[in-house]
Amino acid sequence: MTVRTLVTSTAFALVATAALAETDLPFALDWKFEGPSAPYFAAIDNGHFAAADLSVEISAGQGSLDAIPKVATGAFPVGFADINSLIKFLDQNEGAPVTAVMMIYDAPPFAIVGRKSLGVEAPKDLEGHVLGAPPPDGAWAQFPIFATENDLDMDAITVEPVGFPTREPMLAEGEVDAVTGFSFSSYLNLVRLGVPEDDISTILMSDYGLDLYGNAIIVNTDYAEANPEIITGFLTAIAAGWKDAIADPAAAVDSMIERNPASDAELETRRLELAIEANVATDYVMENGLGDIDDDRFASALEQMKMVYEFNNEPDASAYFTDAYLPDASVRMLK
Questions:
Q1: Where are the domains of the chain?
Q2: Fold (CATH) for 110-207
Q3: Is the pTM of this model over 0.85?
Q4: Could you say which of 24, 48, 91, 267 would form a disulfide bridge with 240 (CB–CB 3.0 to 4.6 Å)?
């Protein structure tokens, strides 16, 4: 064997060893591949997971509850889920091995989306108007907190139960004056239906007294305790993916489009931009970095949850979120 052949063979062996050294880490999303999931695909394509010796495969979900049991059972070591749904799950399944480790939606997307031409621009405007609300909707579930914090007279609001597929079409046709929904989804659905953007009002509940947090990265605690360096590496890559997406949303969406070619790139880029602006890059996150929470706010959020949910056990904040696996704040800064 020549020296050149030996060197070449050694190089291939090193590459193969490096590839074998990567840890497979399945990641369960809460929903289908859309703009707000693009940062995770960017983290794959831009090499951030590989830099942490991780091979991450992302799976779509079917709603805010979908990823929680997947992670709790160990089918997926990591996932993405609404922390309020996680809190209820843990209250009903005490001791289940799942917790949140990195907050992504510092401001949840729970919103009232209305039309200015129909008289809805601010919370009090809902009185005397018709509100369309799908009964299973996550935003509608928090509406009693929103109503209490804004001293709304519920007797003066006509609530019309609507289906998810008919929610925005009914608002576009003027059959209701506002709807509950996720800010970035309902807004863009209305635009797609031809409603002028300057006629759409988005009342984000977090701007009007709601202290709840939104979606977070969750982990199987048994896996995390056995593999803390893997989880910290994963969260480091997640932060890098979001930083890339904020710097170039269109490029991040291109990574998502590769996995979901039927998507509308322009629409999903706009959806991602709306999520970044309203839910991810908040003042708190820009000052403190992505991923951590404010203890006082979280305590207040748990008290607010008691307005809409009867706990079986006294809430324990430490069971729902831990910062033990977060990388240093300097790594998580988005600017």
A1: 24-106+213-332, 110-207
A2: D-Maltodextrin-Binding Protein; domain 2 (3.40.190)
A3: yes
A4: 48
